[in-house]
Amino acid sequence: MRVSLNSIKKLTPINIPTQELIEKVFTQIGAVEHIESQEEKYKGIIIAKIVEKADHSDSDKLGVYQIDIGKEKVQVVAGDKTLKVGDTVAYFAPGTKVPFNTKPESSDGVIQKVTLRGVESNGMLGSSKELDLGNDHTQIMRLDSTFEAGALLADVLELNDTVLDIENKALANRGDCFGLLGIAREFAAIQGNRFESPKWYLDPKSNAPKLSDTLSLEVDNQSQINCPRYMAIIMENVTIGKSPLGMQVELAKAGIKSINNVVDITNYLMLLTAQPLHAFDYDKVVAKSKGETKIVIRQAKTGETLLALNDKVLELDDTMTVICDANNPIALAGVIGGKDTEVDQNTKRIIIEVANFNRYNIRKTSWKLGVFTDAVTRYTKAQDPNQCEAVIYQAVSLLKEHAGAVEASSVVDNYPQPREAVELNIDPVALNTAQGLNLTVEQIQTILENIEYKVSKKEVLKVSVPTFRQDVSIPEDVYEDVSRIYGFNSIEVTLPKKSITPANVNKHWELKAKVRNILSALGANEVLTYNFVSDNEITNYNLNLNEAFHLKNPLSPELEFMRINLIPSLGEKFKENLNRGYDHQALFEINIGHNKQEKDSENLPLERWNLSLLTTGGYYGAKVYLDHLEKKLNLRSLEYTLLADVTVAQLPIWIQLVCGQYNMNRSAVVTYEQDSKKYYVGIIGELSNTLVYNTDLPKGVVALELDFEAVYNAISPASKYQEPSRFPKLSQDLCFVMNKDIQYAKIRDEITKVLKASKMYYELDLIDIYVSEKQPDAKQMTFRIALQSRDKTLEGWEYSKVKKKVEYQLEQQYQAKLI
Amino acid sequence: MEYQNKKVKAIHQSLEDDLLKLSIEELNSKYFGKKGVIKELLQSISTQPQDERKEFGREVNLLKTYFLERVDQLSNRVESDTTSTRIDPSAPFDINTPIEKRPKVKAENGTVHPLMQELDRVLKIFQSMGFDVVESRQLDDDYHMFESLNIPKGHPARDIWDTFWTDENLVPPAHTSTMQNRSMKGKTPPIRVVIPGRCYRNEATDASHEHTFYQIEGVYVDKNISLGDMLGTIKTYLEAFFEMTLEIKVQPAYFPFVEPGCEFMISCPFCKKTGCTVCGYDGWMEIMGCGMIHPKVLEEAGIDPKEYSGFAWGFGLDRLVMLKHSIMDLRRFHSGDLNFLKQF
Questions:
Q1: Which of A116, A752, A768, B196 is deepest in the core (most CB within 10 A)?
Q2: SS3 category, A196
Q3: 3-class DSSP state of A224
Q4: Which chain B residue has its CA at the smallest distance from A615's CA?
Q5: Distance from CA of A278 to the nearest CA of B (A)
Q6: Residues of chain A with C-beta less than 8 angstroms from the C-beta of B333
């Protein structure tokens, strides 16, 4: 919202320095995005009078003028031959900067002394567009003849001004602050002044137009819900022309371009009150409905269209509210007017509409059609239906004054359910407690009355909320007004009084932090990747697109689906890093994937935290990370089942959904056992050949996906600590030969059983696994077994006893032989 | 393709069978080797009767082309996983792997993501202040994202957030406030909780805008909690985070789930208000949105606003980490670029 301080000064005094005011606006109203000094913008522009006029000998478009600029007379050439001797214009001397540079690509907007087709031009005369006061670039802007030659434009047009652009976001619930009256009210209050709205606004009846029955206007409101109030009047005898220069300037400072007196008056009143108005050409409306004078407010029919003022044909549907003549739409209610009934140079009679529309409906329509106008901005912030009356009466009086218009009908007012003021009881004690303030009842009352609340004082304050404050409905809203205007920054900074109970530890978060530290200490790099992936990133990774949630409004096709798991994201990052020269990588991420099958207790998509890792080196290149995690986190013993040997349908759903990514002969499902029950932790393995082929990932890339919750549950409560022994260790390497299909873990567990039973300290390490070409069915495993007594030096025979037992057990259980 | 010549037709049929069964080498030797079947057919063209020669030659050449195309396709074929060698998944390394080739981790240059390092530090500060930690969701419903926060369907305030929607009208949350209702529902104050999590906004990305980013929400509910308490709590946290004393000020802001709502500002911790590029020579930095929880939001969570009051805040993590390390481009965080990550 652009706010000219000069415009505000016409409504309420500003009695503190500008800088201080801006600081107060910042901390008590909302962020000021931009501060524009008008003085700077209009610096050096001088009022000039035409004293002589001649045609250019070499051009039929240019005029040569001698102008009086006060101290002297100079010659300028202008692209407008219609100026007359005596006209008052704005003159840019060489070196002056143009407020609105119409040729930004070719110049920096600084005026030079030039020769145009042989005739010297000492500067330039400004069009309204170049002066940034209007839209017209076809002719030189004519100024008031009362202005004296040589005066500064900034002085005569009150351009010695500062325009603040207050962030719309901060005012999003303050419909009233999209009008200068609302802003002025706030400016008064933050200076500690009492604001009083103008009489025509407070007491509209005093400004009521005279009744006329020259013409009659029928209004049929069939969409009461979307149009709580509709007021209109017909005016005749309208003379379309320029609006007063002062009004043009005020509009320009607010960023609204002058069009003609009628449109400017509607815009000016909107700027002042935030209430949008619309003017229809009465004769065009009547012609369209073949003589009937009727305004119908109704829902559009699907398939209906409207040629809008922005020259676009809008396709309407039945959720949208339209203003119609007897038959067809002539405006999209509260959003944009229709081209066919636009006010133009020949307009003689107009219908002025001042209406209140439902903010939700306006927002929906505007978003659906992509039409955003000043009216939409204001209606969607909620406007007060009660102010329609004051605004339409004031519109009538301005149209009479500046467009020679005369009332041609009475004012139609369709307002079946008038809005009542909200009455609230404000307990000063509660207010002070909630805000951390210590205000007296009188202070509170003063603050509220300064912004035109009606307050009657008892033990509690009885407060009547002005209806232009559509945002205030509960006491807390009033508290906000009081503490904001008193000054948030005057509130004493305190700390809550609380018991010293410690926070609950979030064990999952702690485990995540621990896992991050373990994996990074092992050389892995944590990445964070988007939840959004493309369809290819799902299908090329052997996942089912139907399981992934699809976004209705993705940023791009590359970000159209919610990922099912993290592997595709890691795979894509892996490839990018490969191109950066990282041949060996271990990327991991702890994050969430979603699928359509699994739901949580709220019946929302289950959010399973996964720990996923992608690295090189084949199956065992990933397993080494899992082996480390198992040890560092003190997990229960993890068990591995080759994917080729499991029944997929028996796996948890999430593993079923992702197991197609893995090569079944070179991957395993990871589980652990607790109280004879099997729990699934995740899946690990080399990626499927088709996946590698489709994604261009290098061969040997291997992935690990763990359910974080399962990892947490797998943590063993038992400590594995043993008091160290001071006696020497005996160690031997033992090589066993067995059938090649016997798994390492089986042998390890069998040996461990024996070692445990020995009651000695032991260490068990796998040294080698060997299969010779000659005997492809036989596998040799070499273990290093170290034993240590707890209380004495171990004898050789004692070691041999344990060794024999190991040998016997492996022979019995697995027909493995010591060699 | 239907071949007319009986001999060509028979060879075509046996070829179709062999394409499924034989390896590429076997196919080549059987059909296209020195005494290959197709080779022999080609040589026999010249011995055909004059009137059949042309048609026979055409069919033989078609078969030849077909054979070469299929073999070409097969040689590009992806090998089925079923032909891969089975491994022992329980072992720490593969059979016959010499010691120097066994899987090892490369311990150097492993890193924790800078955002997660910082988040851990932030959470430790809040935990020391007595706040529980609950992580936010990444896919939520309209109720939690909007309705429970006093933003009914169609409310224009929804435009503040550029929200993504799934076909099912689920929402990747645009703020961590999506967890406010859950953090209070069914609980008896005092409630003190911080909620870190991912947020998503449907806006074009550039060096200072990301569609995915991290926020940290805070919720504090108890008896007699005032706006002054909010200012004090947030100030205390920020001073611990920046490890220095700070000046604070607040600015009114509108969020439908708080009343009043504020933007919280601190004196620039990088220049101590002398002016620097970080604060844009303003001396102040906008650091978070906050406010007193709206009575309707408390009520919706089953907490009596007459008995209890509270405050909430939400701030972005990414920008703080950018400032800390002078990272110029927000998009680096989700780039997965090892050149970036290995520096932390």
A1: B196
A2: coil
A3: coil
A4: B105
A5: 23
A6: 528
- What residues of A are in contact with residue B190 (Cβ under 8 Å)? 498-499
Tell how many helices (H) and how many strands (E) occur in chain A.
Answer: 24, 38
- Which ipTM score applies to this complex? 0.83
| Cβ of residue A169 closer than 8 Å to a chain B Cβ | yes
Q: CA angle at residue A701 from A695 to A706, to 5 degrees?
A: 100
Going by their DSSP bridges, the two strands A677-687 and A63-68 should be labelled as unpaired
- Between helix A245-253 and helix A261-273 the angle, nearest 10°, is 50
Enumerate residues 6+ apart whose C-beta is below 8 A from A158. A6, A246, A249
Q: Per residue in A496-553, pLDDT tens?
A: 988 778 888 899 999 999 999 999 999 999 999 999 999 999 999 999 999 999 999 9
Q: Is residue B76's pLDDT more than 70?
A: no
Asked if B89 lies within 8 A of A498 by C-beta distance, the reply is no
Distance from CA of A350 to the nearest CA of B (A): 32
Chain A neighbors of B250, CB-CB under 8 A? 27, 488-489
In this structure, are residues B147 and B153 in contact, taking their beta carbons and an 8 Å threshold?
A: yes
Q: What is the least distance, in Å, from the CA of A688 to any CA of chain B?
A: 6
Test the B interface: residue of A166, A470, A473, A495 with most B CBs within 10 Å: A495
pTM of structure: 0.83
Rg (CA), chain B: 35
pLDDT tens digits, one per residue of A410-446: 999 999 999 999 999 999 999 999 999 999 999 999 9
> Rounded to 5 degrees, what are φ and ψ at A707?
-80, 115
Using the beta-carbon criterion (under 8 Å), do A435 and B89 form an inter-chain contact?
Answer: no
The radius of gyration of chain A from alpha carbons, rounded to an integer in Å, stands at: 41
Paired tokens of A39: 């003085």
CA distances for A752 relative to A725, A769, B249, angstroms:
19, 18, 66
Q: Is the sign of the CA dihedral B227, B229, B233, B235 positive or negative?
A: positive
Helix H or strand E segment including B117: helix B114-128
Q: Other CB atoms closer than 10 Å to residue A303's CB: what's the count? A: 9
Q: Name the residue facing B132 among A503, A508, A618 (closest C-beta).
A: A503
